[in-house]
């Protein structure tokens, strides 16, 4: 089965990725701030479903597929990098807005919230690369079934991601109110998030 070193390594990677800004975080914050915690948690269910789609793909050997057709992996990686770069530009451009700064958005029904959470996660380049490139590095064929190890490592990532994203959805409204009372902090948060997104975009594209 999975070694302690692999388990802790995967947990550390999962924690680092969920704490860095990305499509999932931006979507959950925007919905929680504009439509309330319930909307944020319904959106989180969609995000969680997206994690399980990637988990099943990892168990089925998606990494092997991309190894056989590297051009597809390259296309996925570059498309994801471009998406992150677009999010960074939206945040950093003159007149850009922070995800914590509420803007008028029509309330969406639960089904749409769930679907958007699912689609946002499926299109998240960080998660795609995590399951295609990072997770296989912690799998040791000498320790037993590759599929079973992928399942354990993937579930580790899912639990950490859902826990942290749930906390984000629950506290986004309070954080938004705190930042709105401090315009300089809100501006600083916007630039930090945009810069991190841009950095991740570059790293995804060239790594």
Could you walk me through the main structural features you see in this protein, from its secondary elements to its overall organization?
- With 207 residues, the chain is mainly alpha-helical.
- It has 9 helices and no strands.
- The protein has helices spanning 4-19, 23-35, 37-59, 62-68, 70-92, 110-122, 125-134, 146-180, 183-206.
- Helix 3 packs antiparallel against helix 8.
- It is globular, with a radius of gyration of 18 Å.
- The two termini are 29 Å apart.
- Count of strand segments: 0
Q: Would you list the SSEs in sequence order as H and E?
A: HHHHHHHHH
Q: What is the percent of helical residues?
A: over 70%
- Let me know the average pLDDT: 80
Q: Given the helix and strand composition, which structural class is it?
A: mainly alpha
């Amino acid at each position: 089965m999975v070694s302690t070193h692999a388990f802790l390594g995967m947990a550390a990677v999962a924690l680092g990725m969920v704490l860095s800004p990305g499509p999932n975080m931006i979507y959950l914050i925007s919905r929680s701030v504009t439509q309330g915690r319930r909307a944020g948690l319904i959106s989180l269910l969609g995000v969680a479903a997206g994690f399980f789609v990637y988990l099943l793909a990892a168990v089925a050997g998606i990494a092997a597929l991309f190894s056989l057709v590297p051009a597809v992996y390259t296309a996925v990686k570059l498309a994801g990098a471009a998406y992150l770069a677009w999010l960074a530009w939206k945040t950093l451009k003159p007149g850009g807005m922070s995800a914590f700064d509420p803007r008028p958005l029509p309330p969406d029904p639960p089904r749409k919230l769930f679907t958007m959470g699912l689609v946002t996660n499926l299109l998240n380049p960080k998660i795609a690369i995590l399951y295609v490139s990072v997770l296989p590095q912690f799998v040791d064929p000498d320790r037993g079934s590759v599929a079973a190890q992928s399942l354990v490592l993937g579930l580790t990532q899912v639990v950490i991601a859902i826990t942290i994203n749930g906390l984000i959805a629950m506290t986004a409204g309070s954080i938004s109110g705190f930042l709105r009372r401090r315009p300089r902090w809100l501006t600083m948060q916007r630039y930090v998030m945009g810069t991190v997104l841009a950095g991740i975009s570059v790293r995804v594209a060239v790594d």
